[in-house]
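During the no-cost extension, the postdoctoral fellow (Dr. R.K.) reprocessed legacy sequence entries with the updated structure-token encoder. One reprocessed record is reproduced below for audit purposes.
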Amino acid sequence: MLFDESTLRKLNQLTLVAARVRAGAIKGERRSSRRGSSVEFADYRDYTPGDDLRRLDWNIYARLDRPFIKLLEEEEDLAVHILIDGSQSMNWGDGEAHKFNYARRLAAGLGAVALSAGDVVTVGFLRGGAVAAEYGPSRGQPSLPRLFQYLEGLEPGGTTDLNRSLREYSIRPRRAGLLILISDLLTAEGYETGLRQLQGRGHDAALIHVLAPDELDPPLAGDLQLVDIETEHGQDVSLDVGLRDLYRARARAWIQSTQLNCRSQGVRYQSAVTNHPWDQILLLRMRQAGIVK
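Re-encoded structure tokens follow.
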């Protein structure tokens, strides 16, 4: 199991947030922007001929001598799409700080939140230039063990062209909803075009940027050969204090530019450095970012 019952109980108190709730197929536990026929009061409007008189508020009519119709909020489900980068660069770190295990726990936590709220969950595993494996769509808490089993069976490897993988995910017939990409973004081709295409299909996008602490501040010095974990291409370097400072500055600039790009494209961004407990990222930081509430 990816996390314990105590964490699961905390997650069950959350819901995922979409900037614009999409019309669901059945009623769930989420308030819709549409006015429907549930028992939850939303607002009043003036009566117009042809309105159902059963929805007339007679108490208001008696006080004001004007007819008002009660508007009721309809509850609906949300389609939730969680996409995990399965490239070899995610296979980095030890123990709790291992990037792919960290990403799996975040995906499991987000899936648990969605399933407990009655939302429809689909999880895609991105590798190469495609969706290498897919779970769902499924609904309801009884689906959680199968989601955990699916996630535990995934293994990172090779390279991932995020743009191609995201485009492939976008062209299949799917309900638009909240789409969350979990990735380290260490791809030469970028990710922006793929996310824009998904947004063009009506998805509300969020990005969880997973990085290991030694990727931001490598504890290295001296004459080294650095080897790319995906391509196995080597590069000889002499790493001194000045070069380490330059590296850290460029890493910060890259993260800041990613944040700015996401903001300009209407994508919610959340950094997740793996030396921070994953559940704090989900329970606290994602709440602050407006991804959960």
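The chain has nine helices and eleven strands. The two ends are 24 Å apart (CA to CA). The remaining legacy entries will be reprocessed before the final report is submitted.
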